[in-house]
Amino acid sequence: MKNINLNIATSRSKFSFSIVDSVCFMFVLLCPAIICLSGCRKMIEIDMPINKYPVEKVFDEKNTAVAALSGVYAVIGSGEGSLMTGDVGLSLRSGFMADELSPLVMETVPEYQNVYNAKDGWPIWWMFVYRDYIYQLNTSIIGLENSTKLASVDKNILLGEAKFTRAWLYFNLVNFYGGVPIVLTNDFRINEKIARSPASEVYKQIEEDLKFAKLHLTENYLNRELLDDPQERVRPNKFAATALLARVYLYLGRWQEAEQEADQVISNSAYELLTDLNQVFLKNSKETIWALQPNVNSFSGVNTPDAKVLINRWGFLDPDWYLSSLLTSAFEMGDMRKTAWTQEKAAGYIAYKYKQGYGTSEQTEYTIVLRIAEQYLIRSEARAMQDKLLGDHSAVSDLNLIRARAGLSETSAKTRESILAAISKERQVELFLEWGDRWLNLKRTGNLNEVMTEVSKSKGVAWQPYKSLLPIPYDEFKWNPSLRGHQNPGYGEQP
Q1: Is 446 inside any structural domain?
Q2: 137: how many CB neighbours lie within 10 A of its CB?
Q3: Which tens digit of pLDDT belongs to each residue from 263-286?
């Protein structure tokens, strides 16, 4: 068999190696799926030996094409080597950056004082997102687009999944780093020279990917055979794309479109605000729009990587960090979310949305990425910005649904300014420690500097506005000359 040269690169890190047969190719491409096979059997099950699939057939056969994408989801959600979940994930680290979490030992979490280590600290998740996730998604997209044997409907569904996931990753990149390279190929000769694009251009690519996904994904959730599977919500569907599109339009200030997209999701009977708050974060709950299925096995004993670090360590040790007093005091008297989603320990309150910590064999929880409560808050804000303030189908009516579910009375807010403040407050206590929502929305609404100026005093430091963005990792300037001279303000390009 002829040699196949596979060049894996990002606009930052470059990896080149030669593959002499299809077995090695499949190992590289599908290694996340193979590694996670035991924990994600329902989602990515492969029955035939890997060496039965030469490279040219990977995206011509449905089961291997599905496995390629399933592997990406598995790695993102595994917490083992993932820079999206767990102790180095977005939810935890952005919680320190903002006002949601406090560590027992301040020196162990530099992000708490907004100190970002661009050499080998948390900000290097940029590299992993491009190298481990976006590269594989681009490879899948190119392979699917070039496939001549995969059924058209299957091809478009998988393309929709890949483009949706790529859009979600770029949404996180652009909001934590600002403008970033838009990498759409798997050719290192191109990728190593791609410069940063303005945030507006990144958002255009995100919107384009999401519109494609919304058009081609099915309304129903699918299994590994791309057949309807109402029991699992781990493969993105049309409404996952719609929900993320609603969020994107909110961030862009396109209020009417944000309202319309959120309304489409809310109007679907597959989703609802659950009255029992203890059921919201169970796997495949009706509140879930899209979730990551963690890799659970007898060794890790983990349901969700976030719960592993937020509830207990090694199954018997209390965590090293607790909810900040600023967050716990934000709950109103009688708010059932504080009762259901936090738990008091000797050193303070811990997050208790996910209730299965370390040492759990039964899988009852998945890591929820998108859920219906956010869509109500998006629609509420979008309506407020269009002066649809009071009455039926208004900003207040949506806000009151969220409050009623929490056992609270209707809001007293009546003006646009007071309603927006009330929405921000509901976001704080509804979506805490969910994918950086608090940090990103303080930035989006222009309130970050004001809030962090006060918060930083309690952290023993002075807030500096440039820290609203993370630094580009130092190694990126070695690999990509087009990035040199374009570090985010306030940071250097070498240690």
Answers
A1: yes
A2: 24
A3: 999 999 999 999 999 999 999 999
